[in-house]
Amino acid sequence: MESLDQPDSAAMRAYADELRDMFRQIQNAGMELHAQARGVQFTEKSRDGLVSVTVGPRGELVRLDLDPRIYRRPEARQLADTIVETAQRAAAGARERVTEILEPVIPRAELEAHLDGDVETALTQLAERMEGER
């Protein structure tokens, strides 16, 4: 007889089977998807069109283009804010693209928790899956 606070053995077996299937999918498609995700570059333009920011898959700055017209309004703080805001939007776009690429082999919520460094949520999701709640 199983204890109420112990995970259901059938649910654990089902989760183990799911993990095994997920591992096979990752193994089969993983290298190609990984290469695609590593190659992601995302470009975003500022709302005024004067700043263009390109980032890589982790949101790292790859390229920054400034339209010469920015020098007509030499407001350094506004320019800095525009660059930061544009870079943040580009990083969000790159993250979304990486998530879309990897979603066939890694459930979105789990990948997002890992990308956020949210260990508590990632472990909670794992526990829920082991207990058959998801």
What's a quick, concise take on this entry?
The protein is mainly alpha-helical. The chain has 4 helices and 3 strands.
Topology:
Elements: H1 9-38, E1 42-45, E2 51-55, E3 61-66, H2 76-102, H3 108-116, H4 119-130
Choose one word for the global shape.
elongated
Percentage of residues in DSSP E strands: 5-15%
Helix content: 55-70%
Determine the number of helices (DSSP H or I, runs of at least 4 residues). 4
List low-confidence stretches: none
* Major sheet details: 3 strands, antiparallel
What radius of gyration results from the CA coordinates? 21 Å
SSE ordering: HEEEHHH
Distance between the termini: 24 Å
The count of DSSP E runs of length 2 or more, i.e. the number of strands, is 3
Strands ordered across the widest β-sheet: 1-2-3
Mean pLDDT: 86
Helix/strand-derived class? Answer: mainly alpha
Characterise the protein shown here.
The chain is mainly α. It is 58% helix and 11% strand. The chain contains four helices and three strands; from the N terminus they run αβββααα. A hairpin with a 5-residue loop joins strand 1 and strand 2. Helix 3 packs antiparallel against helix 4. It starts with 8 loop residues before the first helix and ends with a helix.
